[in-house]
Amino acid sequence: MQEDGPIRYNMDEQDHFRPRGAPAAGTDAGSGSVREEGARPGLARMRMSTDTIANKYRIIREIARSNDVVYEAVDTAMGRRLAVKELMLPPNLTGQARRERIERFNREARAAGKLAHPGIVTVYDFGEHDGRHFIAMEFLEGGTLRDLLQARGALPVKEALDIACQVLSALSHAHSHRVVHRDVKPDNIHLLPGGQVKLTDFGIARITEEASLTGDGQVFGTPSYMSPEQIKGGTIDHRTDLFSLGVVLYEMLAGRKPFQGDNVISITHAICTSDPPPIPGIPLELEQAILRALAKDPNRRYASADEMRMALRSAESVPPLFLPRQSSPLGGPPATAGTGFPSGGFGAPLSGPPMPVGVSPPPPAHSTGLPPPTAYAPPPGPAAAPSIAGPFATWGPAGSPPPPPPLPRLRPSPGLSEGARTFVAILLWTVLISSVVVGLVLLFVGAYNEQQARGTELAAQKLVNDGARKYNNGDLEGAASLFEEAFKKAPHSPVAEKARANLARTLNNLGLRAFERGDLRVAGDYWDRVLKLDPNHADAAYNLERLYERTGNRQGGPGEPRSSASPGRVGGPNPAAPGSSSAPDIRREAADRLLQAGLSAYQNGDRETARELWRQAIEKAPGTQPALQAQNLLDQTAARPPF
Q: How large is the average pLDDT for residues 491-502?
């Protein structure tokens, strides 16, 4: 590849940029892995060994090789299975370059070692023994996100967001400890069989509290996943990791990277100057979240990994708008017949056209590859369905057949013209917007009516309170007026029921006052109003009954009530009415005795007995002076009105 500007590199985008002159002998240019001659793609060279590092890590086999070598090993002291990464230093690397390479390796160990998070690979130990620099870390089953994308292509929204949110949780922990990963990509995101995600390879991570090892013009990272400021060699912070994860999330949903190009120069130019194409079939809020993560200016991205994670979780609940996900994401090439994968590009079968000499796909991280079988040439005949290699090829039932080819896409029948479709779309949007407006209007009217009713109820309650104060001060006429106004102001509210009960009690007492004055017509009118408010009001009914027993059926005279034939009134002569020779005196004396007995009981503290005796006095001689006194005592000793 060519060199351009201050960025210097000698590897393609599948691996890190390295300072010019860094060794890559013995590695594949595309993946940084060593493969045995004739090995199948996706299987790393295995090496059985009895070698021991640091007198405690017994090497079982080699599982990966790039700039360094990763072994499966056993901690002989703990009996624990782990992975040991050994630094490979070419003999021709000397002086300052050698010291920086060792320091960068140690910084990787320190960066990952200071982090304790379930989503970050755990480092147990690191150091140097007999000239061998090593890092001991946990052994990971499963495979990388790169393996999964190569096997399946674009992922469902829910699965992609779950992976991204787990990575963001790990990044949040790393950033809180002042560690910037700087190389977030599918190859460094490991998926365990149970669905847990691990962030790996802190080989170029930056500990912000330590001095930088990157000189002017030196750039580290993987081009397709680097942020604009990382490409330009400028100052970077934790937001460069959010950009890289935005690229990864885009690739998981679309099945391809957001920034394309024929070479590294064109890719990095697109990252710095171009916007990514839209992803069909995803929620609009999710698309906006991805675009914010991919902002060229770090200040326009999310301020933290936690903020981005909350935005993605929020977008997950929003349904997609109109457009379904297409089988060929972002208008890519159609699927090759019989495969279900696009012809070429990401998601193509691993058994596709041969790759150039010296270039091979990267091996799965910590894979358990086997020696390649003896080559076998199949007899001529129908082409076998392509198979998918890698750690995810066995994550299903044993011997399961390859996925069926996709259903043929139906050719759309002739339909509406472009103008007609535009009109229908506008019509649908108009109906939708009109429905929203009508709903908002109805909501506003309902809220306004509710507020008005509440205001009316509060005003009625104030009238009831004012009436209660007048009642307690003896102003029964004023209290009755306020209770009646409150009842009319909010007739269907709970306050109206309270006002009605208070008004009935007040009118009844006004009738008693009129009766005491001898104004029997006014008393009857008050009690009649009480019964109109409450036909079951016992006191008013009783008072009217006794009033008509006293006055008989006479009508029209001064101080006399209306006809006793009215509803609720008892008609006919009464032996206790005025005109009887002896009954009034006898009953008055009996009532007086009951009145005095009630007073004695009340003075002795027996309130209930006193009230019962006063009721008997009223019944014995209604309308007489003892009965009126008894009624007055009942009112005075009764519970306060329910105001």
A: 86
Asked whether the beta carbons of 540 and 527 are under 8 A apart, the reply is: yes
Topology annotation, domain 432-574:
1.25.40
Q: Which amino acid is at 148?
A: L
**pLDDT score for 487:** 87
Per-residue pLDDT band at 219 (split at 50, 70, 90): low
Show me where the domains of the chain are located. 52-316, 432-574, 581-643
Residue pLDDT, tens place only, 75-93: 999 999 999 999 998 888 8
Most confident of 173-182, 367-376, 454-463: 173-182
183 among known catalytic residues: yes
Instruction: Assess if CATH 3.90.1720.10 describes domain 52-316.
Output: no
Q: Give the position of tokens 């009965």.
A: 627
Beta strands in 66-156 (DSSP E): 68-75, 80-87, 123-129, 132-138, 143-144
Give Cβ neighbours of residue 508 (< 8 Å, ≥ 6 apart): 526, 527, 530, 537, 539, 540, 543
Q: Tokens standing for 372?
A: 């390649």
At 447, list the tokens. 């809220």
The half-sphere exposure of 42 on its side-chain side, counting CA atoms within 13 A, is 17
Whole-number Å distance between alpha carbons of 233 and 215: 9
- Verdict on whether the full-model pTM lies above 0.85: no
Average pLDDT taken over every residue of the chain: 75
Q: What is the pLDDT of residue 318?
A: 63
Selection from 70, 63, 67 nearest residue 28 by Cα? 67
What span, in angstroms and rounded, lies between the C-alpha atoms of 403 and 421?
Answer: 37
**Secondary structure percentages of the chain, helix, strand, coil, to 5:** 45, 10, 45
Which of 147, 183, 201, 592 is catalytic? The answer is 183
Contacts of 628 (CB under 8 A, 6+ apart): 512, 515, 516
**Residue 299 DSSP class:** G
Give the β-pairing of 132-138 and 123-129. Answer: antiparallel
